[in-house]
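Table S2 (text version). Query chain:
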Amino acid sequence: MTGVQTCALPIFEAAPSLFGPITGPPANDAFGSAAPLGTTASGTLTATNDWAGKEAGEPAHAGSSGGASIWYQFTAAADAPVTLTTQGSTFDTLLAVYTGSAVGALTPVVANNDSDGGKWSRVSFPVAAGTTYRIAVDGESGATGALALGWTVGDPGPVSVSTSALSPATV
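Corresponding structure-token output:
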């Protein structure tokens, strides 16, 4: 054949460079390896639940079987309200908060699936000083992707309302 060339393509060798490295499950895939949430009053962390799984005895978060959970934990320094949100994540999230020290013996505190009517989850709950809370972020039906987990601890502050535009009859 004239003008035709053939070549072998190393598909399996090229795959990591085409799709990024295959690194395995996240370090906080297992309940016993929960990552600390953070020590600031508010913040947002980013992570991925790619390659995460579900442990034997792990509860169904927010009433869904999930299948790609990662774990966080924090110990409350004081009694306060806490809000957690997955807004900004690229996948349909499940968010659940527990107390307890073993994955098969957790006490549910609060959970949510799709608080915004879409794919993000949000929970608000009171915490007690000295109590350790376990936070599971999972993907609906095993969905995976980039996670944004935001938190606020404590009162977000007073709401500022301007009364300059109100008439005396409405004040």
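Notes on Table S2: The longest strand covers residues 132-139. The mean pLDDT is 84.
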